[in-house]
Amino acid sequence: MWHTRASPDEHYAVFRGMPAGVGPVLAIQEFRRASLSGPVSNSPVARQTTGQVLGILLAVGGGLSGQPVGPLGLAMRQDPIKLVLDAFATHAVVALGEGPHNNLAGHAFRLALIREPGFADVVDDIVVEFGSATQQGVIDRYVRGEPVPLSELRHVWEDTTAVGPVWDTPIYAEFFEAVRALNATSPPERRLRVLLGDAPIDWSNTRTRADVRRAGLQKGPHMAALVRREVIAKQRRALMIYGDSHFTGRTLSDPKAAFNRIERMPGGTRVFTIHSTYTDLLAWQPDAATWTLPAAFTTKGTTTGARPLAQFLPIPPAPGWNRLTMTSQFDAIIVLGRPGELKMAALTAGRCADQSYMQMRLARMALNVEQVRRTSIYNLKQICAARLRDAGNGAGLVSRLSLPTQHVLRGVIIQDVRLAHPPE
């Protein structure tokens, strides 16, 4: 259950109480007015004054392109669930950034979102990064309620192009379980379908770093083709859940960029994009300190939207990226928590104690770049040793695991324990 949201009745009272026939724009405007709360510094007058001052400063200095920009204001807090659902009134596809992979607040928000009454009335499909396309038939059976043993289901998130254990923590399995439970109580025409958005990879024939890289390069094209084929062409509506960086690059000229394949090619559609963050906004959004979290806002015309994309996400060292603003890439932002509040999911002791799983994962982690091989493998072993000690099982198993010395590693290890470099 989502415990940090304000009462839905408090946030939706104005919207739900409006007479029939009122357009979504007027409803959202009324909702924004109703959402303002807090001390004097958060009043409409204070917002307008502060926003004008910041807007003048940005207008005088010019935007990232060197051209003058219009006056900018402070963002107006909205309920994040309502913002996502309202976006489907004008967009067939809404892309929700996960925030840092494995963050618990993002997971709790996504569960609250799909469980919100009315979610299945506006969404048909959920496209997720944390599942391999090779397992689409398995997840179809599972979310329909058919019996699928865990030993088979695990291949959905364990056999992706990610060589590390990024999807192996319990939260991703819990998300699939939540969709299955919702479908069990929904009429057939309103049951959700989960589309697995990671590129297909056959691990039985994957032997080298080049094999892994080849499959990984198909992730963006697969995502775009999947959305175009299963969602847009069938006139369905989809929520996409990926790491936030997969939604960037939309205003650059590369027609093969993943989002350009969705939005610019014939028959495409514009996607409503949402960035999820723990970034400190106080320097340009002072009243954010008073917000109930999670909180959402649209970026257009705001001081936050004018900030460089690089302040929120890493960008590639390629032409044009350092000039991108948040507004150019994201239509809205959800603040999941404040700096220092980030809490992450971790592998379970049971998974760490499973020798066949650990051998598989460590061998795959050995199939990537040398620069991070030793550190990532060392950290995974340290994490599992801590889990097993906590469970009273000892750490001997982890220390006995060995790796083929000719392999190299790739992997993102995100856990709630301190990571370190291996001793020399």
How is this structure best summarized?
The chain is of the alpha/beta class and 424 residues long. The chain is built from 18 helices and seven strands. Helices cover 40% and strands 9% of the residues.
Fold and architecture overview:
This protein has 424 residues and is α/β, with parallel strands linked by helices. 40% of the residues lie in helices and 9% in strands. It contains 18 helices and seven strands. It has helices spanning 8-17, 24-35, 44-61, 80-87, 104-115, 119-122, 136-143, 150-153, 155-158, 170-184, 209-216, 219-232, 258-263, 326-329, 349-352, 355-365, 370-390, 396-400, and strands at 93-97, 125-132, 193-198, 238-242, 272-277, 295-298, 332-335. It has a seven-stranded mixed beta sheet with strand order 3-2-4-1-5-7-6, with helices on both faces. The protein is globular and about 60 Å long.
